[in-house]
Every structure is written in structure tokens, then in C-alpha cells.
Amino acid sequence: KNPKVQLPLVRVESDPDFDDAVWSRAAKLDPFVACIKGDRKTPAKKATDVRMFHDSDNVRMRIRCADPDIAKVRKPAVPTGAKEYVVPGDHLEVYVNDPLSEGGYYLFSVSPDDIAADWAKNGGGAWDGAWAHEARRTADGWEVLMTIPLKTIHADNPKGNDLKMLVIREADPFNDISSWGGGRHHQFATFGDVKL
């Protein structure tokens, strides 16, 4: 069963920082579990805390990734060419559907060092959308702020009140992949329901 969440409407006068009190009013995406085919209950090896709200113009997210070995995580190369849509190595992937395109969705990817990329299924892959991101390393992991304008994903209309989303974390590309509700890369049927 796919997860569901209702995002609170929170008005902000400026972009919130990592420690802003506004995050206490945001919705939490639970559960965050290991991304294993057919299994949506196994806990993730490393904790990921996702908070999200909207301000009527944007979806805003803060994602905290626990990692006691953050000092060993190397800075990745900037993605180029056909692989521009995903950051190599440790990274986050946020998928959001396009309400005006059947089966269409966008992918936003960010690393611990704020190296980012994006991609759109409904645009044949090549896409450079307007969105904002900031990432930083901490003593026990890393965290990311993301602002995705509803206009960027064609959700600034009545159909945009009901979105499909997925957040995936790759702490190790081969044996530590976790996601919201156990959803899988590019598998639209596994995306969670997000109501604005």
C-alpha cells in the first residue's frame, strides 16, 4: 500500500533555513524503509527524516540524512550528458508527478555537497526546471533544503492539489537504498499520495 500525507499550508516571509522553527509544523514522511522489491517493512540501515509543507506557491522540504561515516563520503563529479539527471554516489532523489501529463514526472537529485541535477520523463529527459536547493554536511550526516515551485511542475492549478511523490536515498548505490514507503526508482505505481 502506498503511503499518504497531507501537507500543511504554512505562510513564510522568507526561505526557511535548516533550523527554522517552521519545520516543526511540517508534515513528516513516514515510513522511510529499505527499498527492496516486494518488501515495504524492512527498516532503512541509515535514518532519513523528511519534513514537507507548502506555502501555496511552492513545496518546501527539509531532508536530514543520518550517516556516522559522513567523513568518508567523497564529493561526486558533476553529472553530465545522458546521466545529468542523477548525481552519482551518495544522493537523494525526489520524484514528483506532472498533474497535466498522464504518467509524466520530474526527478530532482542532490548530493551532500549540493551538487544537483534534474530530469523530466514527460520532456524526453532533457529539462532544466526552476527550483532551489541547499545542502550541507553535519557532524553526524548531511541535510538538504529543497524548494519546488508548483508552477515548475505544472501544479499551480486545481489538479495540483493531489500529487504523486517519492523520496529515495542512496547511501550506497549497491546495498543501502531506502525510500518513502518502499517506493522504487521510476516506478510510478509506487509513488506516495501527497495532498495539498
Structural class per helix/strand content?
Answer: mainly beta
Gap between N and C termini? 20 Å
> Globular, elongated, flat, extended or rod-shaped: what is the shape?
globular
Query: What is the count of helical runs?
Result: 0
| Strand percentage | 35-45%
Helix content: under 10%
Low-confidence stretches: none
Characterize the main sheet: 8 strands, mixed
Strands, count: 13
**What average pLDDT do the residues reach?**
89
Radius of gyration: 16 Å
Order of helices and strands: EEEEEEEEEEEEE
Question: Secondary structure elements and their pairing?
Answer:
Layout: E1 4-6, E2 27-28, E3 32-34, E4 48-54, E5 58-66, E6 91-97, E7 105-110, E8 116-120, E9 132-138, E10 141-149, E11 162-172, E12 176-180, E13 192-195
Parallel strand pairs: 1-13
Antiparallel strand pairs: 2-4, 3-12, 4-5, 5-10, 6-7, 6-11, 7-8, 9-10, 11-12, 11-13
Give an overview in words.
The protein is mostly beta strands and 196 residues long. Helix content is 0%, strand content 40%. It has no helices and 13 strands. The strands form two sheets. Strands 1, 3, 6, 7, 8, 11, 12 and 13 form an eight-stranded mixed β-sheet that branches. It has a five-stranded antiparallel β-sheet with strand order 2-4-5-10-9, with no helix packed on it. The radius of gyration is 16 Å and the shape is globular. The chain starts with a strand and ends with a strand. The relative contact order is 0.24.
